[in-house]
Amino acid sequence: MKQVKQLLRYPVVLVFFLFLFGYTLFDLTQTDREYSEFENKYLAQKPPFTMKAFLNNEWTQDYEEYINDQFVLRDDWITLKSVCESMLLKIENNGIAYGEDGYMFEKFTTLSGDQRAQYDRNLGYAMTFLNNHQNDNVTFAIIPNAYAIMPEKLPAGLEQIDQLGLIQEAYAQAPESAGIVDFSGTLTEHKDEYIYYRTDHHWTTLGAYYAYAQLMQQLGQEPVALSGLDGKTVENFYGTYFSKAKKFDAQADTITYYEIPDAGVTIDGKEQDGYYDFSKFEVRDKYAAFLRGNNGYTVIKSGVRTVEEEQEPSRILIIKDSYANSFAPFLLCNYDEVHIVDPRYLAGSLSQLINEGGFDEILLMYNFSNLVTDTNLYKLGY
Amino acid sequence: MVFSSILFLFRFMPAAFAIYYLVPKRFKNFTLLVLSLIFYSWGEAKYFPVMIASIVVDYTASGLIESHRDNKLICRLGLIYSVVFNLGMLGFFKYTNFFVGNLNALFGLSLPTISFVLPLGISFYTFQTMSYTIDVYLGKVKAERNIIDFGAFVVLFPQLIAGPIVRYTDINRELKERQINLPQIQDGIKLFILGLGSKVLIANNVGALWTEIEAIGAGEGFLSISTPLAWMAVFAYSLQIYFDFSGYSLMAIGLGKMLGFEFPKNFDFPYISRSFTEFWRRWHMTLGSWFREYLYIPLGGNRVSKSRLYFNLFVVWAATGFWHGASWNFIFWGLFFFVFLVIERMGFKQVLERHSAFSHVYVIFFLLLSWALFAVTDLGMLGDLFTRMFVPVGGVDWIYYLRNYIVVFILGTVLSTPALKGLYLRLEKNNVFCLVFFGAIFLASTAYLVDATYNPFLYFRF
């Protein structure tokens, strides 16, 4: 009793240890989570102990990551940090800078040696691909990031690398046989419209539509009019930039999608019911609804076009990253079959697929940032 | 393990203190030894034998000296045994690659370098154990006969990896007999939280700026940034290293108090110094006094001829620089201070004392340069950075960074002076204030650690 009375005279000691022991026990009794909706990432799980991993310091590192990822009320702690950051008047968090009108941008102030090397390698793979397929009607496109199209939305003084310049340099390396479709002009023309998400790195479906229209015109086809399509919207989209920055007062995005009828969807050999995964519109990672996320090989048959008997259907192949997921559906209005390959997840050989596919057009389309980071483009040569 | 981690705060710390407070007094040192070895071995398991060897060597060396007081030769051999072992370990783990690299460059050789990481805190604990044996040799203190008590001193976890350099004579009485009482624990908790906040809320926050600019320096080169941004980056680094290092020391001192130990102070508002002589009495004080006691004075100190004095200073400052890292820029960094300390000794100090404003500008200006020298290990990049700092180039890149960091800059600047010290000491007496203030810092620090993308450990080179 005397000791308790004494302890009450030192409330800092009392409260500190009560919190420390209490919270630790609270943390220990919680069950582990698999996935964080809030951060859109898989959380570290308890690493299995092996003596070898322990001596190499791998196990201890994994264990620390596990403790961090599974720390109870993790999402709330992250929000608390975000509140503190805004009290410090910070205009960025975890590499995401806050621009005008609620726009977030990934900081891209320099190409490090490793990044430059990866970019050069990736461009090399792309050029090899263009050279290997000179007679296959290949069109090449690099999609710029939002900041390159709307630099005025960047926070003042944030000097990002000159994507548009680098994209032009890349195009200049392409062989004459390859078509080039440069979206930067079109996107810049429409930059006052909602063509990029504020909280996500992708372009919006509207941005993708303008790019589609330009591609069609360049290929001598008539793009479908947006007004003739049935657009639906999904509110409260918080994208990848949000997942990194976790800005507590971020402005949500709206996703628009068009249900252009299909006549069958096959993903990696399995038939699917439609090319949208509507369940994803209900969760945080809404962009994954498009084309049901990133998959190796997707084939969509158009439900708006009628193929005459005994006539070979028209086919387009897109070799792409996730930017094409909201872009591809529009092509159903112009081609009987839209084939989509994401080299990151493709199991088989790409050249075999092209040789056997009978494609009228091939589009090789990548976002600039992905060209800097992707490590799977070597598959373009196989 | 580092203090600024969720693992330490919400696993090690509650477990360690619960056990430590609950075991009976006679087992407390043994408990501390075991807890400290676990702390050390976490992530450094393969260096566990190194740590044990460190304890055993200095224990036997000092025991040998103590039991053969009359035999000068054996005493000397005991001392040499300890010094050779400690410096040998430090030399092998920390400096092998430096010497191999330089030999290769000089003679066009291709000797292989070793590829393992530096054992955590080796620069600190080798100095501590070595100075202990020297003290025993000099008869300043009796050798510790109890290997558990001695082991507990060597691996005492609060000060093990980043200082302060606690000498045996600082805590030998507490090792044997210490009172663990609530006022001391309360002080300890406060200091620990202040240290945690310094490291996590200020140092990490402002350090992100330097790290980002350093990445540009390594990519496109420092010449691609504007002059104001170059200065801002170096300023940010100056704040980072101070709050990081002094934060670690504060956490160590706080944890020490919570265990019943009084560690020596390590930082005393160094940035308000008016000369470099004063700066080194306020910055990493335990390192400065270590070099004074165990290198400068044995060399003859200042009771020698002028030329010998300058030689002594040269040796001490080259060694101080080299202690901070095995690379030329650290040696230059040490010698940079040598130059200023000599100039001040030759009479410049009197000038500084007369001109208050000038002396502050002088210290801050050259300190910034010294931190640039400290931060950039690549001499080519360092040249670019100095070029950009002194050959003015405009630009707007600094606007963004100033906007982003302005509050942290102001906070860091104010807190690196004693401006708020008086206010703090008055408020600190109020329990309600303490609960709110320390609670807020602790919760905010935890939040930053949970969402940590940038939480570097700067002393991996030490």
Describe this structure in words.
- The complex is a heterodimer of chains A (382) and B (462).
- Chain A is an alpha/beta fold and 382 residues long.
- Chain A folds into two domains: 2-96, no CATH class; 113-381, no CATH class.
- Chain A is 34% helix and 17% strand.
- Chain A has helices at residues 2-8, 11-28, 51-55, 58-69, 74-87, 113-132, 146-149, 163-173, 184-189, 205-218, 240-245, 350-357, 368-373; strands spanning 35-36, 41-42, 92-93, 96-98, 104-106, 138-143, 179-180, 231-237, 253-258, 262-267, 270-272, 297-302, 315-320, 337-341, 361-367.
- In chain A, the strands form four sheets. Chain A has an eight-stranded mixed β-sheet. A three-stranded antiparallel β-sheet of chain A has the order 3-4-5. Chain A has a two-stranded antiparallel ribbon with strand order 1-2.
- Chain B is mostly helical.
- Chain B folds into two domains: 6-178, no CATH class; 184-461, no CATH class.
- Chain B has 18 helices and no strands.
- Chain B has helices at residues 6-22, 28-41, 48-67, 72-107, 122-137, 147-155, 168-176, 182-219, 227-259, 276-282, 285-296, 306-323, 328-354, 356-375, 379-390, 397-415, 421-427, 431-450.
- The longest helix of chain B has 38 residues, at 182-219.
- The two termini of chain B are 16 Å apart.
- Chains A and B meet through helix 2, helix 4, helix 5 and helix 6 of A and helix 1, helix 8, helix 16 and helix 18 of B.
- Chain A: This is DHHW protein.
- Chain A: Keywords: Membrane, Transmembrane, Transmembrane helix.
- Chain A: InterPro entries: DHHW.
- Chain A: The chain crosses the membrane at residues 7-26.
